[in-house]
Amino acid sequence: MRMNRAQAAAVLTMGVFGAAQASASTGSQQQFRQSYALAAGGRVVIDNPYGDVRIDAWDRGEVRIQAIKSASDSRRLEDAQIVVDSTSDTLSIRTEYAGPNGEHPASVEYRITVPRTANLDAVRLVNGGLSIRGLHGAVKATSVNGDIRAERLEGTADLSTVNGQVEADFHRISPANAISLRSVNGPIVLSIPSGAGAQLLAQNLSGGILTDIRRTETEERGHRFHAILKGGGAQIHLQNVNGGISIHSTWSRRRERPVL
Questions:
Q1: Would you say 112 and 35 are in contact if contact means Cβ atoms under 8 Å apart?
Q2: Closest-CA residue to 250 (of 153, 129, 141, 146)
Q3: Residues forming beta bridges with residue 249, ordered by sequence position
Q4: Are strands 90-97 and 80-86 parallel, antiparallel or unpaired?
């Protein structure tokens, strides 16, 4: 398959260490640094099977990628390649592995800074945690084994993990922006602005549901909690299997552990 120039440059950054590319190798680690232009409201797609990802927002029209590849055996570093496909309105970042799938593959830890209005169209992790901070655009992210933590969000959010905690803090919520948080084995913690309007539904199979939010209409039945806040507004759905659910107003700054 033929690679475009942006993709080829990203792959070469991990393999060729010279003045033209800001990369370095020390022992069993390699570093990657590169920036790409992205239009306002552009899409960002991330796929990383092994390693944590941290995403911060800034007021620039570009994405900055900083990554560290690590392995117990330096020979495994070349099995993991960072591949970047870049256009004016879409940026795809993924880690691809070559050779046999060994027991201890190289991991890649990403620190990515994106435009504040960017949309995280799909962030897919397998073995690693995700941290997001200050994004105004939409967020859709999943992990299999890892926590997901998001701070000061303002857009639509769809966050889910299988083995881990989901914690999301919203600076602002809107009736047009739905919120969905899901976990199978781990607690869910949601913080929304005091006085925000929402239709909230929380469900779990085992574990309690805690909240300090004042609500006008409430239905509590077993492990199901439904509330209309301030006449309704944003659709908020929290779903858990083995873990508690906590719902708080941001003004309270409470972080009680859910009942497990």
A1: no
A2: 153
A3: 192
A4: antiparallel
- Structural domain boundaries of the chain? 5-252
Per-residue pLDDT reduced to its tens digit, 139-179: 999 999 999 999 999 999 999 999 999 999 999 999 999 99
Q: What is the DSSP string of the chain?
A: ----HHHHHHHHHHH--STTSEEEEETTEEEEEEEEE--TT-EEEEEEEES-EEEEEESSSEEEEEEEEE-SSGGGGGGEEEEEEE-SSEEEEEEEE-S---SS--EEEEEEEEETT-EEEEEEEEES-EEEES--S-EEEEEEES-EEEEEE-S-EEEEEEES-EEEEES---TTS-EEEEEEES-EEEEE-TT--EEEEEEEEES-EEE----SEEEEETTEEEEEETT--EEEEEEEEES-EEEEEGGG---PPPP-
Paired residues of 41 in beta bridges = none
CB 63 within 8 A of CB 44: yes
Expressed in angstroms, the distance from the first to the final Cα of the chain is: 49
Q: pLDDT higher for 226 or 67?
A: 67
Average pLDDT, the chain: 84
∠ CA 223-227-232, rounded to 5°: 150
Pick the CATH number of 5-252 from 2.60.40, 2.160.20, 2.60.120, 2.50.20: 2.160.20
Cα 69 versus chain centre, distance: 19
Confidence of residue 221 (pLDDT cuts 50, 70, 90): low
SS (H, E, C) 10-29: HHHHHHCCCCCCEEEEECCE
Q: What span, in angstroms and rounded, lies between the C-alpha atoms of 203 and 35?
A: 41
